[in-house]
Fold this sequence. Notes:
- It is a single chain.
- By secondary structure, this protein is mostly beta strands.
- The relative contact order is 0.26.
Amino acid sequence: xxxxxxxxxxxxxxxxxxxxxxxxxxxxxxxxxxxxxxxxxxxxxxxxxxxxxxxxxxxxxxxxxxxxxxxxxxxxxxxxxxxxxxxxxxxxxxxxxxxxxxxxxxxxxxxxxxxxxxxxxxxxxxxxxx
Length: 130
């Protein structure tokens, strides 16, 4: 798939996210169904609820392309341990989340991230949701 990742795609995704009950949507960037990586754009609106979760077998790379949000980390008891503010126009634009680390996001304004993980997509298992 050849296309430019820019404002037109961001605007379309954010419009779609705004009309989605979950207040988010994604665009799969894999080359085919047989591509076992996870590469996607995620458009996120303030108020979206992403459960605190972890990925046991892969790290996760998140780079903010538009907007402002916080990546929020937790301990095993659900206590917030760290909050990293990301701003597409600021100093902090992305994070590398180690495998097994509990995390979620707090979206401050309409935002688009690129998210990359190893392996084929699989729904989160019970032990991966806090």
